[in-house]
Write a structure and sequence with these properties.
Number of strands: 0
Helix content: 55-70%
Number of helices: 5
Distance between the termini: 97 Å
Number of domains: 2
Pfam families: HAAS (PF22564)
Transmembrane segments: 95-119
Oligomer: single chain
Shape: elongated
Protein name: DUF1700 domain-containing protein
Structural class: mainly alpha
Strand content: under 5%
Keywords: Membrane, Transmembrane, Transmembrane helix
Length: 142
Amino acid sequence: MKVEDQLIRGYLDRLHAAARALPEDRGRELIADVAEHLAVALGDPAVTTEADRRQVLDRLGEPEEIVRAALEEQPVTVFPPAQAPARMSPGVKTALITAVVVLAFLLLVLFLSSLLFAANVVETGPSQGSVVVPTPMKSPTG
């Protein structure tokens, strides 16, 4: 590998390392922009020596400075302070507890009445108007 190539590779490696301080998408964007500037500048026919390449890198600036400037441009996201969960007012809490108790009582009454109805049907037989389903009889041969 040529010294010039090592010089550019080392610069880009430093840029990659410094860009880790940025959000991932912004870091990729910054690296792509700098790489594009480098490609254009190094593609100039006047840039032929290692000194020319160093001058191109010097004009770009230190990778850490480039990232620091990008960090300063980043909008700062301020999160509101965490709020405690809202509490129920005593009136709402009482109404909710009352509703749950009444519902439980109604379900209990419904369950007990269905048990009494089933027990009554078994003792007295089906009432008038009830549908009786005949059970199949076994054949004498089977």
